[in-house]
Specification:
2 domains; globular
Length: 402
Amino acid sequence: MSKLAEVAVCAALMLSALLTPSTARAEGPVPAIIQGPPPGWEIVKITDDPEQDRRVAMNNVGQIVFSKRAIPNPGGTREEIYLYDNGKLRRLTNDILEDASPDINDAGVIVWNKKDPGTSEHEIMRYTDGVIEQLTNDAVDQLGPSIGNDGTIIWPIWFSSVQVELYRYENGNAVPITDNGFTNVCVTINASGDYAWVRYEFNLNPWVSTIMCSIGGEVHETSDGTTQAQGCGINDAGTTVWHDNVGVLMRTNGVISVLPNSLNGRGPRISNAGDVIYGLSLGNFGSGMLFRDGQTYQLIDTPELAFHGYDISDSGEVAFGVGDFPELDIALLWRTRDPGDFTGDKIVDRFDFESMQNCMSNVECGVQMPPVCLDVFDFDSDGDIDFRDFALFQRLVTPANN
């Protein structure tokens, strides 16, 4: 396989509609799929424009990071990093380069890979408190970084089309953490710095892969290495999820189970609450599937042709890209809000006022008003948030909490 084909293997984990369905099924009774979000939850949009918003990641404090690609995009080289922060949308990069594959931790530190059109290599970038720094500068390709809450940064380095090794950023240097000659990609990190990844053996025909985990510094094989296992995720308890030909699998305390209704499921992610989000091929379109409390919810029930990239927080919120490809927007599954209650705590107070200010500042900064803002603060339903909406907001403020 070429390097681009190998990259596509990892990227395709989030494009369930483009993957070949498998034939095996999990045994046992299967509860019915519930159409739409769980009761008390709704889907709102963060962006709604004719561009391609993708490769989304989120943390546990209301921040969502993604990349935006203009359409058309000659050469496919112009892509920028955007941050959504509790109502405010900001562009973090503004250059002619390809800034893509971002990740974010709970401290708001963001990592991504950047490519200069004049070279063939990607480098690793980091954003901290408004400052962007380049962490690598090597003649090798470095893609898909992940960051943990402890600041751990791990990414794959491509030495050839079949040898990709994982590296960790330590004290200003890239330090190798694998050296096995295989294709090690798609790494995810939990809050403790433990991590999971996929180790592909493309030298075999047919190829096989193994879900790998490093827990407390000890490396384990989570799957048996005989299937085409892909798309791993890990939470703070060390529970891992992945998919293969039988569906989405979960390993908890050494026991492996198959999620119901997950045949053809791809690229799962798991929260500390045990919620699992994954993509599912449904014939001519793909949907996001949420497994929560033993129930499976189909988040998308209309044939929008792409469910592209997704992440889940410990509060159960899900950020994902959705749309009619190549146009994609960022959507958010969150608890249904009452008017004025942006934080969703059933109290309208100064924290909601701060979010309202964030929403109003988007227009001042030349950024489109996120539709999620209008969902909560557009009291007069005129498509904007202005002083008339602020006057109505004041009437809702809880006196003891203003």
